[in-house]
Amino acid sequence: MASPRALKFVCLVVCAMAMAASTAKAAISCNQVVSALTPCISYVVSNGALTQQCCQAIRGLNSAARTTPDRQGVCTCLKNTASQFAYNSRNVALAAGLAGKCGVKLPYKIDPSTDCKSVK
């Protein structure tokens, strides 16, 4: 089973990729991204219940990441945070499906291999 840090990473990667932004000019800090997505950790890490708070966080980050630099920054934050943890394909799959389960449509794939620089 993945550690809590690994789950945070996977959740962050998925959400960051979903709401990517460039760290150089992004209005959303990485700390804000990580903090906002905390309600999603149990779902991604241990296939827990998908909560209203998690979906609200996903919708809020998606709305806040209005510019390309914001979206790229969120993506980069999630990828960097995720790289610090061990995760498995199940965690990645849960994270990848998170936005869709919350009714948020993203124009790119949520995956650790996503190139954040290509996120528009």
Automatic annotation (TrEMBL):
Residue stretches making up the Bifunctional inhibitor/plant lipid transfer protein/seed storage helical domain: 30-116
One GO molecular-function entry: lipid binding
SUPFAM superfamilies on file: Bifunctional inhibitor/lipid-transfer protein/seed storage 2S albumin
Domain of life of the organism encoding this protein: Eukaryota
SMART domains given in the database record: AAI
Annotated keywords: Disulfide bond, Lipid-binding, Signal, Transport
InterPro entries: Bifun_inhib/LTP/seed_sf (IPR036312), Bifunc_inhib/LTP/seed_store (IPR016140), Plant_nsLTP (IPR000528)
Signal peptide residues on this chain, from the entry's feature table: 1-26
Entry's Gene Ontology BP terms: lipid transport
Family (UniProt): Belongs to the plant LTP family.
Function statement: Plant non-specific lipid-transfer proteins transfer phospholipids as well as galactolipids across membranes. May play a role in wax or cutin deposition in the cell walls of expanding epidermal cells and certain secretory tissues.
Protein name: Non-specific lipid-transfer protein
